[in-house]
Design goal:
Elements lengths: L9 H12 L16 H16 L3 E4 L5 E5 L8 E6 L12 H16 L8 E6 L12 H6 L5 H5 L9 H8 L14 E7 L4 H5 L3 E7 L1 E10 L16 H17 L6 E3 L3 E4 L9 E10 L2 H12 L4 E2 L2 E11 L2 E2 L2 H13 L4 E6 L4 H5 L5 E6 L15 H20 L1
Helix pairs in contact: 1-3, 3-12, 10-12
């Protein structure tokens, strides 16, 4: 039986978004809800209560990730909807939590209409996606997918010296490894875009086909410190002058590669950082992201081919880290695109420049992501905003996609 054309309750969705935001709401209407903090534990308990009220069974795995499952008429692989409830410090009301609320509203809609799904429907809350308290980000999904070592993750400390293991135990959300998800019909993650493209183009739904690959390098330039007032210009080994020449060269070469390439020199350390002293060392980072790994490799070639000496200063390059592009499941992505079309919403195929739990989950479950517009592209700040109308459209796309998966 085709289950079609149901819609979520927009007013309830709006109220739910605001209720979740009350757990850690800041004076400027943002949210601070660091992973496994008091506020995170409170919102987790509220989420569990909402799910149990719907007759869902809630379990927790050994990394604290939560699974709320509405039983289906069969015991087949579940349809999973998820994201995260933790935030950065002074973050927004929509990042992460919207994906969890989407799953909750999908189940509420099924229950409202007395529908027992053919397959179980599971709503997930991943622990420590942001990495704002315990680095790295996407910690739980990284362990779940085998990308991170659990033993090492449990040792990670927050700025106060509390380990992840200690915080997890204190939270009451230390579960069993046996509860980890191992199979699913599909995994869906709704998220705000965190960028300006959808709003600028007037598009309602981002049809995300991948999370882009990236490379991050550190460039170290070594010169010599001397007095800023007594050393002639032609006798200086100024590391900052050399670094700015390298940065200008990188901008010129990287800017000519591809219009979709984004690159950032985000960290610059100047030593000794005194206005009367010629800098003797500069260290800066170069990070670049693109969905085509051939482009990423061209970026790396440009960085590694930088000269070893500029203005009598030595230059070295070190790769800090990188990742390959993660492509989402074509079939599930197709169902998302079909859902947006059925609902009459405009859509745009796009890549995610930011990392999400879905990129790790995609390694072992058929996955797809859906974006909704961010006002002025703002995210990870208190000004973060997505209209309730756009949130509703996004959740309706999730619902329609779930119904397609259930009817298949």
């Amino acid at each position: 039986m085709q289950l079609k054309q149901l819609y979520v309750n927009g007013e309830r969705l709006k109220a739910t978004i605001e209720t979740f935001a009350d757990y850690g709401r800041t004076e400027k209407n943002g949210v601070t809800r660091l992973s496994l903090s008091e506020q995170d534990v409170q919102v987790r308990n509220y989420f569990r209560a909402c799910c149990e009220e719907l007759g869902m069974n809630v379990t927790v795995d050994d990394m604290g990730s939560m699974y709320a499952t509405l039983a289906g008429s069969t015991d087949g692989p579940p349809v999973v909807i998820g994201s995260h409830l933790d935030t950065v410090k002074k973050g927004g009301r929509f990042d992460g939590v919207l994906g969890v609320i989407a799953g909750l509203e999908v189940v509420r809609t099924l229950v409202d209409h007395g529908i027992t799904p053919r397959l179980p429907v599971t709503v997930m809350n991943f622990t420590n996606e942001e990495g704002a308290r315990f680095e790295p980000s996407m910690m739980a999904s990284g362990v779940l997918s085998g990308r991170f070592d659990k033993t090492e993750m449990l040792k990670k400390q927050d700025p106060e010296g509390i380990t992840f293991a200690e915080a997890l135990e204190a939270s009451g959300f230390a579960g069993e490894a046996a509860n980890r998800i191992a199979e699913a019909t599909a995994y869906l993650e709704l998220h705000i875009e965190q960028g300006p493209v959808l709003e600028r183009e007037g598009v309602a739904i981002g049809l995300v086909d991948c999370v882009v690959g990236m490379a991050c390098y550190e460039v170290e330039v070594t010169g010599e410190s001397d007095h800023a007032g007594t050393t002639p210009m032609d006798m200086r080994r100024d590391a900052l002058f050399a670094a700015t020449e390298l940065i200008a060269e990188l901008r010129r070469k990287l800017g000519a590669l591809d219009p979709e390439l984004v690159y950032t020199m985000g960290r610059l350390n100047v030593q000794p950082n005194i206005h009367t002293v010629i800098p003797n060392k500069v260290i800066f980072t170069v990070e670049a992201r693109h969905k085509d790994m051939d482009i990423v490799r061209e970026v790396e070639a440009i960085i590694t081919s930088l000269p070893e000496e500029v203005l009598d200063c030595a230059v070295s390059k070190t790769k800090l880290w990188g990742r390959d592009t993660v492509w989402f499941d074509p079939h599930v992505c197709g169902l998302v695109e079909q859902a947006a079309a059925v609902l009459g919403y405009s859509g745009k195929k796009m890549a995610s420049g930011a990392g999400h739990d879905a990129q790790f989950v995609a390694g072992f479950l058929p996955s797809a992501m859906i974006f909704v517009p961010s006002v002025n592209g703002k995210s990870h700040c208190e000004e973060e905003l997505t209209s309730y109308e756009d949130c509703e459209k996004g959740v309706n796309v999730v619902l329609e996609t779930v119904l397609s998966l259930l009817s298949g």
